[in-house]
Write a structure and sequence with these properties.
The chain contains 14 helices and 15 strands. The structure holds 2-succinylbenzoate and magnesium ion (MG). 2-succinylbenzoate binds next to loops. The site of magnesium ion has 5 residues, from loops. Keywords: Lyase, Magnesium, Menaquinone biosynthesis, Metal-binding.
Length: about 375
């Protein structure tokens, strides 16, 4: 693969309904769509899932624009690559900035799969034709969250994740469990708790939750290990896991029983496969997370979730969960409660570039002037 041109589209879209977490409320979403073109004009698409503010990890849209332009795009132009994993290896020379790396590497995976006339799922090693999926219910009045769950059950979702904060956890979970005693239910705290809240978290054990996601801060592996010893509900780590090394720490410390994998958070699809393989070997259940992303990242996540180790339904809700219009056709949709893994080359969907251009606040275009002899 010889990359000749790269475009970054800085877009912003309103969310269909505000998304509230323990951190705050999102009403609109900035994202960066990546388009790469090879020497023959074949293209690949990726998405940088960083947020506008550094609340989830330290990256932001603006740091991603900087690291892409000044470090990662020049790497891509410098050399011919045989495989997307070579790109991931090259990116190792620079630390962190996983979401920027992932956006670009994802586009290379799309291009690579297209050039080989295989689907992205096939290229990654996936073996499922369709995947069961879950959905996230953002913080609201318990009665409204109940209504949401009932609508999502009707849509066919198989796992329900409730965003909680330490102020409202017990009230919300008990209300939902009263009406739905047996649905696969879990909560995500986005680091809202601290070690002093262990008694509060212990009280949630009675609700038979699938897991409690990221109760403590992202570097609090030791605290999570203390918690996991005290509660029977599995702890799942999200923000804590930015690399395979982070999982090794969590595993050795018994800091969690489950891990959610997001390509953006771990530096791309190559890293996601390495993590998948490690977790399969160690018998750590994994699932694919979500980032309120557009269909480009979402359908990439569908391909990833088709790998055999992803045994828990992920946060791969339909396009209609967050968007009035998505950027891909067909949109991500539930058919009989499942999402089909695309079989066409690459992402296996049409990308609506006209729409991307029309909602772009800025478009950055880079052209390779480097002569490559081999
Ligand atoms: O993409 C979705 O539908 C929601 C997934 C989600 O919960 C989430 C969305 C944005 C940032 C962090 C998280 C999270 O899993 O913590
Ligand atoms: Mg989470």
């Amino acid at each position: 693969m010889l990359i000749r041109q790269i475009e970054l589209f800085l877009i912003e879209q309103p969310l269909k309904v505000p998304f509230k977490t323990s951190y705050g409320t999102y009403e609109k979403r900035e994202s960066i769509i990546v388009k790469i073109l090879d020497a023959n004009g074949i293209c690949g698409y990726g998405e940088v899932v960083a947020f506008s503010e550094p609340w989830y990890t330290e990256e932001t849209i603006q740091t991603a624009l900087h690291t892409l332009q000044d470090f990662f795009i020049p790497i891509l132009f410098k050399k011919q690559f045989n495989h997307p994993s070579d790109v991931a290896t090259r990116f190792n020379q620079f630390k962190g900035n996983q979401m920027a790396k992932s956006g670009l590497e994802g586009a290379v995976w799309d291009l690579y799969s297209k050039l080989n006339s295989i689907s992205l799922a096939q290229a990654l090693g996936g073996n499922k034709a369709e995947i069961p999926v879950g959905v996230v219910i953002s913080i609201d009045e318990p009665i409204k969250m109940l209504k949401q769950i009932s609508a999502y059950i009707t849509e066919g979702y198989e796992r329900f994740k409730i965003k909680v904060s330490k102020e409202n956890d017990y009230e919300i979970v008990s209300t939902i469990r009263n009406s739905y005693p047996t649905i696969p239910l879990m909560i995500d705290a986005n680091s809202d708790y601290s070690i002093e809240d262990i008694p509060k978290l212990k009280k949630l054990d009675e609700f038979n939750l699938l897991m409690i996601e990221q109760p403590f801060g992202d570097r609090q592996f030791i605290e999570h290990a203390i918690l996991q010893k005290e509660i029977s509900t599995p702890v799942c780590l999200d923000e804590s896991i930015c690399s395979l090394e982070d999982i090794q720490i969590a595993y050795e410390l018994n800091a969690c029983k489950i891990i959610t994998v997001k390509p953006g958070r771990v530096g791309g699809l190559t890293k996601s496969i390495e993590i998948h393989d490690y977790c399969v070997e160690k018998n750590i259940p994994i699932w694919v997370g979500g980032m309120i992303e557009t269909g480009i990242s979402r359908i990439q996540n569908v391909a990833l979730a088709s790998l055999p180790g992803f045994t828990i339904p992920g946060d791969i809700s339909a396009s209609s969960r967050h968007w009035e219009h998505d950027l891909i056709f067909p949109e991500v949709a539930l058919i009989n409660g499942k999402v089909k893994v695309p079989v066409g080359p690459g992402l296996g969907v049409e990308v609506d570039e006209e729409r991307i251009r029309s909602i772009s606040k800025k478009i950055y275009k880079y052209t390779s002037l480097v002569e490559i002899t081999k």
